[in-house]
Prior knowledge:
Layout: H1 9-53, H2 58-67
Amino acid sequence: MDSVPQDDSSKRHNSSADLHISNNFIRTMVFTMMISMMSATMFNIILPEITQEYDLTYKQASWVSTAF
Length: 68
C-alpha cells in the first residue's frame, strides 16, 4: 500500500499562526509590565506627599503602596 505524502504547507501555516499568537502575547505582556512599572513609579514619587498629608508612618505608607 502506497502512503500519500503529507503536504507541509499546512504545518507551515499552523506554525506561522502560532508564532503570530506568540508575538501578540509577548507584546501584550511587555506593554502590561511597562504600564505597571510606570504606575508604581508614579505612586512612589507621590508617596512622601501622601505620607505627610494623611500623617502616616513609613510602615503605614508602605502598606498603602503594596495595596496599590
